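Q: Got one fold?
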Amino acid sequence: MNRTTVSLIAGTAALAAVTGFATLSSPKTAGTAGTAVALPVERTSLLCPSPSTSDIAETSYTSFTPVTKDAGSGGKAELQAAAEKSDGKSKSQSKDKDKGKGKKAGKPVLEPGEPGKPATGDTSGGDAPALDGTAEGKFAPGWTVQETTEVAAGSGRGLQGVNCSAPDTEFWFPGASTAADRTDYVHLTNPDDSAAVVDIELYGKDGALDSTLGEGITVAPHSSDPILLSTLTEEKQENLTVHVNVRSGRVGAAVQALDDKLGGDWLAASTDPSGSLVLPGIPKDATAVRLVAFAPGDSDADLKVQLASPSGLITPAGNETLHVKAGMTASADLGDVTRGEAGSLVLTPTDTSVPVVAALRVVRGKGADQETAFIPATRPVGTRATVADNSAKGTTLSLAAPTRGATVKVTASAGSEGGEAVSKTFTLKAGTTQNVEAPTPTGLKGTYALTVEHVSGGPVYGARTLAATKDGVPGFTIQTLPNDRGMVAVPEADQDLSVLQK
């Protein structure tokens, strides 16, 4: 092996450890050159959308990093208004600076504490800015930030929650709408020093909607733009799939879906198109569940629809399969499919596997007390996943093992204002979903995080539901628990590089 080759391997390892842009692997194993070692990521970025335009909105942020072996002892993490990193030259940036007025430039909105303990912050009103967050060193592996907003009245009233997400170049959002009673925005946040150029494509039940206004949208550096879907098309569609494709740069993206009658919530992006999908954590008291799916390729998809219940996989009567035409959005109303029990939807191909994306719109309550949340198809928990902003009451953790039995360890962190971490182990039977009795910290004060770690068995999928009542209005929000990608695989050379210096 020559010096150039050694330098290339070392450079690749360093880049992977810093950026996290590498394939996950098993823990370190001894072997020959070419094997990989799993190392904690050393830098992570998260973007939080502007939470609300309502003057009566109350928003809380919770930051948490699980304790990670070999993560080192240094580093820091902070969240600050996205526009505060800008040079103020663009109109879009100036607008965001106005939204962030009252905050000293450069001062973090939230400074996370030590790994293992949540840190919280809050704001109120409708001028809270989008946030740009960075974690380094021991704060980076598995870093998660939850944004939760309570709105007592008006369109979208209820509880809205979203996990702040990493910037990327492509997003799929099945479950959006331009119906008369819906006001849906795509929030685009650019964390970088150069402008991002984005295309927004809309697909309804008959295919792509005619619109040129979604092409070549420029998102200024360190700014955030909410794009109202109804301004991109004149068509009123009950069920839409939104495709965000970034031509240059990268953005964070999330859809805020506000309903005049059914409250509202954030719709997070579906996992990458796949032939089989899992949508975990349907509340057991859901009164209406709607499945929305889209096949982005050139082939139709035929999906088998099953519910992973506490007793096993069952097929919803009248909704055994779903046919999804290529390039068209399909939907199915599943009613109260869970019938009082915990459940997760499992989609598999009936024959040929065709990549699809999917999401669920879930409604709880009746009459004027109805509220809405969304469950996108998600990645499995994998090695580890975390969700923050849990409270002693109103938190439900749902875990599903759709293919094989599995064992997981669930840890409740220390509380944000006091308390000690507690862990419990759960065994899940194949094809089932359980609302587990998750632990709560001993002597809990404040809120806490829940971390799920895979111990053995098949893949596990998870979701957390938060429920709260504000001024007599019941609300809820659901966040899935995809793998936190806190570890990356880097090449390992078994040769003593010091020999090459002789």
Observations:
- Residues 1-33, 87-106, 495-502 have pLDDT under 50 and may be disordered.
- The helical segments are 3-19, 91-99.
